[in-house]
Automatic annotation (TrEMBL):
Bilayer-spanning residue ranges: none
Keywords: Cytokinin biosynthesis
Family: Belongs to the LOG family.
Protein name as catalogued: cytokinin riboside 5'-monophosphate phosphoribohydrolase
The EC number(s) this enzyme carries: 3.2.2.n1
The organism of origin for this protein: Striga hermonthica
The reaction(s) this protein catalyses: 9-ribosyl-trans-zeatin 5'-phosphate + H2O = trans-zeatin + D-ribose 5-phosphate; N(6)-(dimethylallyl)adenosine 5'-phosphate + H2O = N(6)-dimethylallyladenine + D-ribose 5-phosphate
Entry's Gene Ontology BP terms: cytokinin biosynthetic process
Function of the protein: Cytokinin-activating enzyme working in the direct activation pathway. Phosphoribohydrolase that converts inactive cytokinin nucleotides to the biologically active free-base forms.
InterPro entries: LOG_fam (IPR031100)
Keyword 4Fe-4S (UniProt): no
Length: 162
């Protein structure tokens, strides 16, 4: 995906439902190789969401690749919330997020993400990202929520799912 394609995706698709979207949960993991192309894609996403004053929610710590990039959203005067399971060590807690929610389990972490966001953007990640993606999609299929779920198909990673 090019930056132009990403800008078009964010500008044309997300803005169609913007009136109802105040917070987007961005899922992705540190398993993604931190290539310059991936950094550019995620930075563009954060800039586009920030321009629209859409708050960010994500699961992560200051040590994750996406954790540091999502903090860029603070430059747009938006709220950046972090959710993580309680078992993560205190030294890994993201100190720069505007709020931090701790949960007892990965399941509870996913519940917090669903309860505190209006839509989801799934970025490439590892097994935990895939597990959360399938959980959120399953809950939507069971009509437990009706929030939009988007895949950022960087490097065609999600081709098998779409």
């Amino acid at each position: 995906i090019s930056l132009l394609q990403m800008e078009t995706l964010v500008s044309s698709q997300v803005t169609k439902v913007l009136p109802s979207i105040k917070t987007i949960c961005v899922l992705g993991g540190s398993k993604l190789v931190a290539s310059s192309q991936n950094i550019d894609i995620v930075s563009q996403l954060v800039r586009e969401l920030g321009k629209q004053k859409i708050n960010l929610l994500y699961g992560g710590t200051s040590l994750t690749f996406f954790g540091s990039l999502l903090l860029a959203g603070k430059g747009f005067d938006i709220e950046v919330k972090s959710v993580l399971p309680f078992h993560k060590t205190p030294s890994k807690v993201l100190k720069d997020s505007t709020s931090l929610m701790l949960s007892n389990s990965i399941y509870d972490c996913t519940m917090l993400m669903v309860n505190h966001s209006d839509a989801f953007i799934i970025l490439p990640g590892g097994y935990e990202t895939l597990m959360t993606m399938f959980t959120i999609a399953s809950w939507a299929d069971m009509k437990l929520h009706n929030k939009p779920i988007g895949l950022l198909n960087s490097h065609h990673i999600f081709n098998g799912f779409i």
